[in-house]
Amino acid sequence: MKLKLLKLSLILNLCALTALPVAHAADKVKIGFVSTLSGPSSALGVDIKNGFDLAVKLNGGNLGGLPAEVLVGDDQFKPDVAKQFFEKFIKRDKVDFMTGVVFSNIMLAALPEAIEDKVFYVSPNAAPSSIAGKDCNPYFFAVSWPNDAYHESAGQYASTKGYKSAYILAPNYVAGKDSLAGFKRFYNGKVIGEVYTKLGQLDYSAELADIRAAKPDIVYTFLPGGMGINFIKQFVAAGLNKDIKLVLPGFSSDQDIIRSVGEDMLGIYDAAHWAPEMTNAANKKFVAEFEKEYKRLPSVYASQGYDTALLIDAAVRASKGNLEDKELLRKNLKEAKFASVRGDFKFGNNQFPVQNYYLREVVKDSQGRLVNRIMGQPIFTNRGDAFSNECMMK
After folding, report:
1. Staple partner for 362: which of 99, 260, 265, 285, CB 3.0–4.6 Å?
2. 55: domain range?
């Protein structure tokens, strides 16, 4: 129902962008930031917030030359709580932008609040494939990647590597289904097991027994946060890593996971669009400043939170602080020029990024720290997504 609402509102929203009165520069920019900041999956939301906060701090507390007021809500991993915060920040506090949500099911529950009130939602993470395609909307921008992208990259890698059989596993919700669909889209071997677990599940003994019996060449999982931490620990403890290769999306092998799992992560391959060691100037600055501020290496989530703030900063600046002219603001969001940590940044017609995806391996750096290192050339170069041709927007 919510997705239908987004689709039905697309044409009206596009028209509404051109029907707004001339407005003057605002005296500040207000951001509603809603994310999972408590519970087993809170590391993801905290990293996004830390990255976003760091960008604002390095900008002197401003975005686009205006003082930035960031209103924060903890969705507690509950869609109804997120929806309440969206409604509060949009209707009562009159924010100019919404951002922050980690999980697709939570974002889809709350997003209509922003769409209906014509408030831009700039996603630092959750980006369901449907919104990349038929349900695209002028008020939705993704700074991360479409839900399928990392998984498509992993599937392509597994095919290129010649793995003949795969057992694939994900939680039973929108992003989980998108993830395995993406992997299968580019994997040309045989899928001998496809399992959807309960969202938030932490005990994988039954699934591991099934994997042992199936004897696949590889296991591919999408299990963010605490789910992934537990799965990897249990996979290694069961000794399955000795005979079966574990391949992951980047966020399931990221710094939050590495910190919790430790050296059992060594040698694990994953697919992602960013790594801490990228040598562009913007990334070097981001990694150094993040370590200085938070005493740890940043994750993919942190990098996306940082880029989200920089995107908003660039769009507000280009709009000269005119936040009421929605057509102008959308144009400047879509065409924003900023120093992304991933290198060159651009949007496709559906307002999702067009970017490179890489194979990474968990290794020890020169300081003995466990980090993700990019291996060779990109798996995909300037990859958009499989859904943009379904999007009506230009």
Report:
1. 265
2. 2-145+279-353
In this predicted structure, what is the pLDDT of residue 234? Answer: 97
Structure tokens at 388: 């943009």
- Quickly count: other Cβ atoms within 10 Å of residue 281's Cβ: 9
Residue 100 belongs to domain with CATH number: 3.40.50.2300
Query: What pTM was estimated for this model as a whole?
Result: 0.89
DSSP secondary structure letters along 96-163: SEEE----HHHHHHHHHHHHHTT-EEEESS---HHHHTTT--TTEEESS--TTHHHHHHHHHHHHHT-
Q: Are residues 348 and 377 in the same domain?
A: no
Residues 234 and 374 in one domain: yes
Same structural domain, 363 and 343? no
- Rounded to a whole number of angstroms, the distance between the first and last alpha carbons of the chain is 25
Identify the bridge partners of residue 165 per DSSP, sorted by sequence position. 190
Judgement on whether residues 137 and 13 belong to the same structural domain of the protein: yes
Residue 251: predicted pLDDT: 87
Task: Collect all residues with Cβ–Cβ distance below 8 Å to 180 and sequence separation of at least 6.
Answer: 151, 168, 170, 194, 196, 222
Distances (CA, A) of 281 to 206, 276, 357: 46, 12, 19
DSSP assigned state of 20: P
- In the sheet that holds 62-63, the strands lie side by side as 62-63, 66-74, 29-35, 97-99, 120-123, 140-142
Quick count: other Cβ atoms within 10 Å of Cβ 324? 15
Q: How many domains would you assign to the chain? A: 2
- Is 99 domain-assigned? yes
